[in-house]
User: Fold this.
Amino acid sequence: MKFSLFSTFTLTLALSALPLAMAQNRTATNNLGTNPNQRFQLNQNQALQIITAAAAKSAEIKIPINVAVTDPAGLLLAFLRTDNAYLGSIDIAIKKARTVSLFNGAITTGAWYNLTQPGQSLYAIQETNGGLIVFGGGVPCYVDGYFVGSVGVSGGTTDEDVQIATAGVDAVGSTEGQV
Ligand SMILES: *[C@@H]1O[C@H](CO)[C@@H](O)[C@H](O)[C@H]1NC(C)=O
Ligand SMILES: *[C@@H]1O[C@H](CO)[C@@H](O)[C@H](O)[C@H]1NC(C)=O
Assistant:
């Protein structure tokens, strides 16, 4: 009984300390430092700016889309499905952004296409990591030259998706940067 009370207390203490540890400095967003182990990522305002700019381009060219913004690890930061966008494209948009992040923003999803055709050197890489998307619509986002996240768009042709994803990135940074 004594032991079990102690365990419960320890667990409660550990859990209540966790949010504090995780909230180390939530005001620090994209202050680019010099420590190579620091991970910089889009903050929520930047993610929303990307979504808003992509939605504006989608409305302009009249292509309903799903747009996903992921962090540099490929985890979702923001998502929008515009009216009438394909439901099947939800997953594709998220996986496009994730595909770019899983390779450190070094390659767009469109640039994978030729490399992953039957007989080409990286054929079947799309079967790894739970499914990569290897056609256009996923682009990296760099701010001040640093890779900070990825944008995936799905709903139009690959050219339209790329155009919309790029418009999103352009709102906060660039699709080009140091890898
Ligand atoms: C958190 O980060 C902000 C912005 O970089 C900085 O001004 C502030 O001093 C930091 N706070 C702590 C407690 O480190
Ligand atoms: C992919 O291959 C096609 C046909 O060979 C070529 O026209 C195109 O430029 C290639 N795309 C890239 C990104 O290398």
